[in-house]
Write a structure and sequence with these properties.
single chain, elongated, two-stranded antiparallel ribbon, about 45 residues, mainly beta
């Protein structure tokens, strides 16, 4: 999660980021960042 300038904040926009001095490509996405039914608190447990 990070702050980005408004011109890059549209969902689906690809941006370049640095994590510990290593470059990566990232895509702007909306919350939730994962499937709540498959991985989150809404999943069925047996």
């Amino acid at each position: 999660m990070a702050y980005v300038k408004p011109q890059y904040a549209e969902e689906g926009t690809e941006i370049a980021i640095l994590i510990r001095e290593k470059g990566y490509t990232a895509k702007i996405s909306n919350f939730p960042l994962f499937d709540e039914i498959k991985y989150g608190w809404k999943r069925k447990t047996s």
